[in-house]
Amino acid sequence: MGVTKQLLPFGHSTILGQVIRNALDSNLDEIVVVLGYRAQEIVQRISDAPVKVVINAEFQQGLSSSIRKGLGSIAETLAVMIILADQPLVGREIINALIAEFDKGNRGIIVPVYNNNRGHPVIFAPLYRNELLALQGDIGGKEIVRAHPEDVCEVNVDSEAVICDIDDSDDYQTQLEKGSL
Predict the structure, then answer these.
(1) Residue 116 sits in which domain range?
(2) How many domains does the chain have?
(3) Residue 40 is assigned to a structural domain of this protein
(4) How far apart are CA 81 and CA 120, in angstroms?
């Protein structure tokens, strides 16, 4: 986009600030924010948030490096939810619905679905930690989801927020408009 999109204004905050607020308002126990490009600039803007910040100096290696860095900063947990920093409309209701489904204990991978399209955030049980740590390049957990269809629970949501992210100025404008509704 030519700018640090995480710091673009969104509502009463920034894109990343809104994502953090949504996570903090949910039933998540711990929130780890992994920063790469322009990390120091972003840290200054989120320093008041009660989150753990981890700097990924290898961010140019892709999304997998951020996943590895984030996982490496936490102890073994009941589960890990990977939330994208450019999806400010994924609210606590969606996050909590995914957590509630995971808590039923039926499946180890929980994926939101809107209109037959899988989206984010995604929950992974501890059994997938090593596979997440082994990811390489600019890919997330999608390959793990594909490799374990028997352990995937799709949670239908009534919000396209789970399939929409902000990659360019048109996406940003669309998300701003939807956020102000």
Answers:
(1) 5-174
(2) 1
(3) yes
(4) 9
Closest residue by Cα to residue 18 from 85, 115, 97, 110: 85
pLDDT in tens, 41-66: 999 989 899 999 999 999 999 889 99
Nearest to 166 by CA among 177, 155, 158: 177
Looking up tokens 């209109």, which residue turns up? 115
Residue 67 lies in a domain: yes
- CATH code for the domain of 13: 3.90.550.10
Q: Is residue 180 part of a domain?
A: no
Burial annotation 138-166 (CB, 10 A radius, 16+ → b, else e): eebbeebbeebeebbbebebebebbbbbb
Q: Minimal CA–CA distance to 143: which of 53, 89, 62, 57?
A: 62
How far is CA 133 from its chain centroid? 16
Whether 139 is in a domain gets the answer yes
Span 103-133, pLDDT tens digits: 998 999 999 999 999 999 999 999 999 999 9
